[in-house]
Amino acid sequence: MYESEIQRRRTFAIISHPDAGKTTLTEKLLLFGGAIHIAGAVKSNKIRKTATSDWMEIEKQRGISVATSVMGFEYNGYKINILDTPGHQDFAEDTYRTLTAVDSVIIVVDTAKGVESQTRKLMEVCRMRKTPVMIFVNKMDREGKDPFDLLDELEAELKIAVRPLTFPINQGFQFKGVYNIYKQNLELYTPNKQTISESVQLEDINSRELDTLVGERDAAKLRDDLEIIAGVYNPFDVERYLAGELAPVFYGSALNNFGVKELLDCFVEIAPSPRAVQTLEREINPYEENFSGFVFKIHANMDPNHRSCIAFVKICSGKFERNVNYKHIRHGKMLKFSAPTAFMAQKKETVDEAFAGDIVGLPDSGTFKIGDTLTSGEDIHFKGLPSFSPEMFKYIENADPMKTKQLEKGINQLMDEGVAQMFINQYNNRKIIGTVGQLQFEVIQYRLLHEYGAQCRWENLSLHKACWIESDNATELEHFKKRKAQYMAIDKEGRDVFLADSGYVLQMAQNDFKDIRFHFTSEF
Ligand code: G4P
Questions:
Q1: Which residue, by CA, sits nearest to atom 21 of ligand 1?
Q2: 297 in ligand 1 pocket by Cβ < 6 Å?
Q3: Residue 52 banded pLDDT, cuts 50, 70, 90
Q4: In what order do the strands lie in the sheet with 198-201?
Q5: Confidence band (pLDDT; 50, 70, 90) for 386?
Q6: Which of 29, 343, 375, 498 has its CA at 20 to 30 Å from residue 68's CA atom?
Q7: Residue 97 pLDDT exceeds 90
Q8: Which among 22, 24, 82 is the best mutation to test ligand 1's pocket, defined by most ligand atoms within 8 Å of the CB?
Q9: Phi, psi at residue 60, to the nearest 5°?
């Protein structure tokens, strides 16, 4: 019924290691979509390096990030939704969740730095979910790695087959452009931040024209390179890309607006529109008439005078309408929303309707929790909002006995919002907060005080990983839990979690208890 609307939607995220050029690329994509008109208009929600320990500064910047959380724009008949992800790696958990709401991903890699840690980790999430990915090798205007070496590195480090769809002619000062293998044309590079490059149709790579355009030496090199590509790599297979097995690779310079249009044009053509999503009960097809969606992110307004949040809902099927009753499955209640927002051209606007693939922002004051399902009425539960083992752990203690209730409430709400994870140690009944970075501890402490009037204290806890455990062998599971009693905890859903204090201990446990499966994410 809404087929054409849904088919033209492309909802994706750009991921990269900080500084690879995500913000710059986002901005250039918005320029193409006419969503902004001058470069520099996108204020990065990236937390400046200088501010890593100054988290009030981060808060100021977070204010900006609501507006840039989702950036919707129209391009060549397509409706594009870019979901922003926090640049700071301490907020990686947010990024993981955002990745559950996208239909594909563009990875930005710096040509000089290659694959960096953050990219590797985020790619693991994509691989787990079989999300189709495209790679943009950025900063070709600078000296970097040999493109063939980099392709090998991408394949080895990201554990995905790659296939170049454009290929550079030199890089750094000598950079002359890229040959678009996909469209068979040559894009000539002129260092310029605003204009689109000069494009020459060049079906026959052996034509003399190439020599005239880039010089004989570079023309010969390009012909050799393309021959190697044709020999080494299989022809590009869209189906394998859609299955998350093969990543097309593009080269360019986001800062110079070069190679970006090639990426975007290919992206809208081959990237998937919303696809079927699994719920606990059944698979939901995006083209079903009835609305369904899930909350993947909750953005708190940190101003203590206006304590409200925005719950971000990814629409998985049908059409969402303003002022229509929808069922909040966890509460079993019908709710309607008079002021849902969509995010177009960097502005938050009230919308009357939105379709599968879109994100709507619902004003919220504590009704929603990450992972909540909303539907036209059917009782279904979306799965696929995994928690990952945190990297840092601390016991949380009450520092103001008069405010126990407030602390309790604050912690629970912050956990529902997904700020961090909480485990309860079954041995001493103490609460453990697990995060991916030090900053979250500061965020939690600050917010508990300012929003709930509660005070907390942290006590260090040295743990290697939290593993969700399960087994078909009930006796062995019981035996394990007894043996490791001090290290057993439950997560917020009541699932068993083993807190391994070192890699060695974990390995020994895996060796000694063969019937127990240890998982590093809560989804298995
Ligand atoms: P991020 O969001 O992934 O963290 O990266 P961002 O786009 O902010 O880019 C990081 C730095 O790299 C910026 O410089 C940006 O201008 C630069 N950059 C991005 N794309 C290119 C490119 O194609 N070529 C070159 N040479 N540089 C590029 P900065 O000095 O850190 O910030 P700014 O002062 O320029 O904003």
A1: 255
A2: no
A3: very low
A4: 166-169, 177-180, 185-188, 198-201
A5: confident
A6: 375
A7: no
A8: 24
A9: -60, -40
Question: Which residue, 144, 72, 89, is CA-closest to 436?
Answer: 89
The confidence score (pLDDT) of residue 436 equals: 84
Index of the ligand 1 atom closest to the CA of residue 27: 7
Q: What is the pLDDT of residue 51?
A: 38
Rounded to whole angstroms, how far apart are CA atoms 336 and 379? 17
- The confidence score (pLDDT) of residue 118 equals 83
Q: How far is the CA of 386 from the centre of ligand 1 (A)?
A: 31
Structure tokens at 62: 């977070």
Q: Indicate the SS3 state at residue 245.
A: coil
- Mean pLDDT within 503-518: 94
Spatial separation of the C-alpha atoms in residues 218 and 228, rounded to whole Å: 15
* pLDDT tens, residue by residue, 104-120: 999 999 999 999 988 99
46 alpha carbon – ligand 1 mean position (Å): 11
What does the pLDDT average to over 22-49? 67
Indicate if the alpha-carbon torsion angle 59, 63, 69, 73 is positive or negative. Answer: negative
| Dihedral over Cα of 338, 339, 343, 349: its sign | positive
Strands 177-180 and 185-188: antiparallel
Nearest to 453 by CA among 404, 397, 394: 404
User: Which residue's alpha carbon is at the smallest distance from atom 15 of ligand 1?
Assistant: 21
Report the separation in Å between the CA atom of 271 and the middle of ligand 1, taken as the mean of its atom positions. Answer: 25
Beta carbon of 141 within 6 Å of any ligand 1 atom: yes
253 lines ligand 1 (CB under 6 A): yes
According to DSSP, the residues that pair with 359 across neighbouring strands are 314
164: left (phi over 0), alpha (psi -120 to 50) or beta: beta
Domains in the chain (CATH in brackets) are: 3-172+235-270 (3.40.50.300), 277-375 (3.40.50.300), 392-519 (3.30.70.3280)
CB of 257 shorter than 6 A to ligand 1: no
Structure-token pair, residue 201: 């149709």
Inform me whether the pLDDT recorded for 49 exceeds 70: no
Mean pLDDT of 442-469: 92
Q: Which two tokens stand for residue 179?
A: 């040959």
- Structure tokens that stand for 432 in this block: 């453990």
Tell me, using a 6 A CB cutoff, whether residue 20 lines ligand 1.
Answer: yes
